[in-house]
Design brief:
Elements (H helix, E strand, L loop, with lengths): L7 H12 L23 E6 L1 H11 L8 H9 L7 E8 L4 H12 L6 E6 L11 H11 L4 E10 L7 H18 L4 E7 L59 H12 L12 H16 L2
Parallel strand pairs: 1-2, 2-3, 3-4, 4-5
Helix pairs in contact: 7-8
Bound molecules: zinc ion.
The site of zinc ion has 5 residues, from loops.
């Protein structure tokens, strides 16, 4: 048999499959920094798109063994010995999400160890499709007790998938609706290259590893997008050519590890240092305060 692939398409496919690890590698082993930690340490993903993550899995692993969204979440986010999530805030922000939110919620809301919550609202990409009908669907979702906020709403001038004036009008309309609902829910803002129109105040406050309460940080994966770049292939049983194919809640400790590295920059040997567990604990408290999870 010739070793030359019969066509360019097969060549691309084989390259792609060689870069995609076996699906068993998707269940991430407990991060080294968490191995000796407090058993009560709780990981909370405050922003993820679980339905899209499952769709991404099905695209990348067409013959994958995880047949439905509940099995998928159970395997990747609830497995013993992995970086198991205690809570998550799922995001329903596209018009199509409003077609499945109730069934997704029904499938995911009764895990014994996962506090499943969600936010709902129109992403700025969707602004051009906003309508009274779509708003009615969002408001219907907001009646559910597991709905903890509006989001992700905002402005995105990088992609400009909707005209900017339409994005602004839809953002104003959703903010007015959120405030009028008087439910004191969180608002998750998406902003990209819109700094002139969305002012981000410096939320820094005095904090230290021994008194971390001023660390105003929340951790999120935005799954399936952007797995952390510091996930070491060797440690995860992947070849050097492979890439972790999508983010999910189990990657959070790598994000925390990166944050700790930044926080500890410039510290000397004798200085009080941040730890992965320390920032995750503070983020867990912050998630409770922001979203009630
Ligand atoms: Zn998102």
């Amino acid at each position: 048999m010739s070793s030359t692939p019969p066509s360019g398409t097969s060549s691309r496919q084989s390259t792609r499959s060689s870069r995609t690890p076996h699906e068993d590698k998707l269940v991430l082993p407990l991060h080294d920094d968490l191995k000796d930690s407090d058993p009560h340490l709780e990981l909370v993903d405050t922003h993820c798109h679980i339905h899209s993550t499952f769709q991404t899995y099905k695209d990348k692993y067409p013959d994958g063994k995880l047949a439905d969204i509940r099995t998928f979440v159970s395997a990747l986010l609830q497995a013993d010995g992995s970086n198991k999530l205690a809570a998550c805030v799922d995001v329903y922000c596209e018009g199509s999400d409003m077609d499945h939110w109730a069934s997704t919620l029904a499938a995911l809301s009764d895990f014994p160890d996962l506090d499943y919550r969600f936010v709902a609202g129109a992403h700025p990409h969707e602004a051009k499709n906003y309508s009274d009908e779509l708003e009615r669907k969002f408001l219907e979702a907001h009646k559910h007790p597991r709905c903890v906020g509006w989001g992700e709403i905002g402005l995105d001038y990088h992609y400009d998938n909707s005209p900017r004036d339409v994005q602004q009008e839809v953002l104003r309309r959703q903010l007015r609706t959120a405030l009028a609902s008087d439910k004191n829910k969180a608002i998750t803002i998406h902003t990209r290259e819109a700094d002139d129109d969305i002012v981000v105040r410096n939320l820094g406050a005095t904090c230290s590893p021994s008194d971390p309460s001023g660390l105003r940080i929340l951790f999120e994966t935005d799954a399936p997008y952007m797995p952390p770049a510091n996930m070491a292939n060797k440690q995860l049983g992947m070849t050097s050519k492979q890439r972790f194919p999508f983010a999910h809640g189990g990657v959070l400790p790598w994000t925390a590890e990166f944050v700790v590295k930044v926080l500890n920059e410039g510290k000397g040997d004798d200085d009080d240092k941040w730890t992965t567990v320390g920032v995750l604990k503070q983020a867990r408290e912050n998630a409770r305060r922001c979203y009630g999870v």
